[in-house]
Request: fold
Amino acid sequence: MDVFEAIRRRRSVRTFSAQKIEREKILQILEAGRLAPSSSNRQAWHFVVVDAPALIEQIPDTAPAGTRRIISFVGKAPLVIVGCCTKALTHYLAQLTGHENHLIDVSIAMTQMTLAATGLGIGTCWVGWFGESRLRNLLKLPRKYKAVALLVMGYPAEPSTEEAIGGIPATPRKTLEDIVSHNRFGERY
Ligand SMILES: Cc1cc2nc3c(=O)[nH]c(=O)nc-3n(C[C@H](O)[C@H](O)[C@H](O)COP(=O)(O)O)c2cc1C
Reply:
């Protein structure tokens, strides 16, 4: 599958079959993240591969009080990759530049993972709705790491089609006209 096809076919998949993802494929997905660019090539990231059902089913409990159901699907997923970055660096760099490259770095790596997974027929869903400190306790993350996002993944419960992984219809997007300017903000490209 070429990159553009993977970009086009990726969907947020939230229901998975019971089929486990083969270790070789998980390593390929991780490799797609490892090769990602990062600010000054710092690679200040760490990825925790969680496949123990007893841990995965507790992840929804980390969500803010009363909102567990928003990510209840996570508890039934076969695999969760937790994207982390160095917390110390987070504060230091953000103070210097006013923006947070380390968060961008982890996000790029995880984006590459989603596309690699799509190419392998595996569905993914980004999850940001989790409680960071509760998740840190659950997974025993060292203090210096911050959990940035989760990538929930598995083989889709529904068959994939030419159009989409997991056969899920596309969610709407703004038009290029809506989101692109030329030279100065608001001038049409
Ligand atoms: C940073 C980020 C956080 C997200 N968090 C959640 C989440 O907590 N729960 C969820 O069900 N979907 C989550 N999503 C998935 C989005 O809802 C989804 O990407 C969006 O609706 C577009 O649909 P698509 O991915 O199928 O194209 C998240 C996506 C991103 C990029």
The first strand starts at residue 45 and ends at 50. Residues 11-12, 14, 71, 125-129, 149, 171 surround flavin mononucleotide (CB under 6 Å). Helices lie at 3-9, 23-34, 53-56, 87-97, 101-119, 132-139, 176-179.
